[in-house]
Amino acid sequence: MAPTVLKIDFVSDISCPWCAIGLHALEQAAARLQGEVALDWHFQPFELNPHMGPEGQDINEHLQEKYGATPEQSQQTRAAIAERGAALGFAFQMDKRSRIYNTFDAHRLLHWAAEQGLQRPLKHALFKAYFTDGQNPGSHAVLLRAAQEVGLDADAARAVLSSDRYAAEVREREAFYQGHGIHSVPAVIVNDRHLIQGGQPVEVFEQALRQIATEK
């Protein structure tokens, strides 16, 4: 019997560590269900900091302004995130990530990568560039390197980034999900109906996918 195909709209931002955790956990849940369930992936844009300037902002300063977090609280949170990531096989190098950046151009590039069938590999490459390597995901040079790493055409990627292509599409998608009540990420929407919020453990995703597949 063929596996049940579930459509996944993974609403997330490159600068969201819980989104990286959620993606790896969801992929591992799907691997546990191999043969029973197959996922049809669609990555949807969400900007945690849509008004962030190109130079970015010091991460501790940003977290204190936005969430009222002290440096000690932020350090504790980062340690917990790094531990969750390590358990999933993803390396958060928190000492390399000192700033928060604008991610709009990354979302435009991801929109284009979907048309090339390479959206998920690019998403992984961008998470690694930011969280593991401490690079600026708003930098066109960083975005181009990530695109080339996953097999996207460098000249075509450069043409996208040097224009405003897909800007309207990204803003439309962002407005759509916010208009439907998505105000924090990751948000995993299954078959346009079922919402799983947050960077859940593998077991939670596995149980949810199995239950939805059975209902279908």
Task: Walk me through what this model shows.
By secondary structure, the protein is an alpha+beta fold. It has one domain: Glutaredoxin (3-Layer(aba) Sandwich), CATH 3.40.30.10. It is 52% helix and 14% strand. It contains nine helices and six strands; from the N terminus they run βαββααβαααααββα. It has helices at 17-32, 59-67, 71-87, 104-115, 119-132, 140-149, 154-161, 167-179, 202-215; strands spanning 4-12, 37-45, 57-58, 99-100, 187-190, 194-197. The strands form two sheets. Strands 2-1-5-6 form a four-stranded mixed beta sheet. A two-stranded antiparallel sheet has the order 3-4. A hairpin with a 3-residue loop joins strand 5 (187-190) and strand 6. It is globular and about 50 Å long. It starts with a strand and ends with a helix. The mean pLDDT is 96.
User: H/E series, N to C?
Assistant: EHEEHHEHHHHHEEH
The proportion of residues forming helix, as a percent range, comes to 40-55%
The first-level CATH class is given as: Alpha Beta
Number of domains: 1
Percent of residues in β-strands? 5-15%
Helical stretch tally: 9
CATH topology: Glutaredoxin
Which structural category fits the helices and strands?
Answer: alpha+beta
Overall pLDDT level: 96
Distance between the termini: 15 Å
Give the tally of β-strands.
Answer: 6
CATH structural architecture: 3-Layer(aba) Sandwich
The largest sheet, given as strand count, sense and whether it forms a barrel, is: 4 strands, mixed
